[in-house]
Amino acid sequence: MLPSTPTRPLLGSKTPLFLHPQQTFCNFFNKNPNSQMGTKPFSSKSPSSLPAEAHRTTDAEAAISLQEWQGWGTISPVPSMVKQVIQDLKLLEKDIDSEMTFDGNHGKLSGDFKVHEDKKHRAKYASLGNSEEKLQFFSARQIACRLLGSRGYLCQKCWLPLEDCMCSKVTTCSLWHKLRIWLYMHPKDFLRQNNTGKLLWQVYGVQAASLCLFGIVEHEEMMWNELNHAGRNKVWCLYPNKNAVTESVKDGVGSAVDPANEDGIMHFILIDGTWSNSNAMFRRLQDRAKLVWGQELRCISLNTGVSLMHKLRPQPSWDRTCTAAAAIGLLYELQLVPEFRSFGLEKQAEAVETALEVLLKALTARRLRMGRSISRRERHNRDIC
Ligand SMILES: [Zn+2]
């Protein structure tokens, strides 16, 4: 993987959304397994006094059911490559007679099993014929490991450890029915506790704010079917590419849609990944758009002004590039467009702001409880959210 940088591209440098870029929500809650949980490996299974052979999960238990898969916040079928990777992991367990264990964050393999699996997946990766196959395998493997490691550890809805579940404090809200948000998420952000994109479907529901995992064919097909149906003029990507022409929300969206007409649904794609990963994600979207429409996706950038600034309740730990904040900014800017004034977008944005505050509190409480500093000295570690 490319090295990551501590910034993310969603809002662009001209966006003065939050004034404390040095104090980022993302970096505050960096997941450094060594600093957070110690290096003790966690098993995906409950401890048992039975002999290892007896408590090893069966193939049926290891498989991901549709219900379990969709419980994590998606409406797609279980991706076939993810199923395959899980089967291969179980086979490897048998072959080497060593149980799968996971690191402190439950997202990566650890210990002896990891050593064997590393060799195996590298060989598999090298054997794949082209970059598309490699990407799909990379994504499926990431997702499979996170799914198995997070079982019984994370709450499926809020992606927090079960003892920190914040679900009872989240208030849902209907997003205006003409809007649909796609969280185009990098596999490394899937099931991350401090990911904020997940808040969007927690608040608006999975039909209004849908997860689309980068490199997962079932997800990308589902999204592109909808985008095709809507047509290029109803689709925007919130990503201010330096080399691409971006429009403002007012000019781009405001002029394209007359909400009084039965114009169909407007789709907004938010790229949910680190800066370095986002470039590849953006390229993949644009390649597909050119294939489908012969033209690139329309890109919008937020150009927040005074009116937006004073509506937001700035939190020093919110990153101006955090995904939920991007959605909040988008809704506030749409609200300023005269044609969109009467759809309650401000209230819908506030619902996510409130959820973001709840997440921040939950993560802070967890950190304090585990005896970790809440200072931001670790901000240069890997960025996420
Ligand atoms: Zn929860």
Automatic annotation (TrEMBL):
It is an enzyme of class 2 (transferase). Residues 36-57 are annotated as: Disordered. Its EC number is 2.5.1.25. InterPro entries: DTW, DTWD2/TAPT. The keyword Iron-sulfur does not apply. Residues 151-372 form the DTW domain. GO terms for biological process: tRNA processing. Residues 40-49 have a biased composition (Low complexity). Keywords: S-adenosyl-L-methionine, Transferase, tRNA processing. One of its GO terms (molecular function) is tRNA-uridine aminocarboxypropyltransferase activity. This is tRNA-uridine aminocarboxypropyltransferase. It comes from Sesamum alatum. The lineage of its organism: Eukaryota, Viridiplantae, Streptophyta, Embryophyta, Tracheophyta.
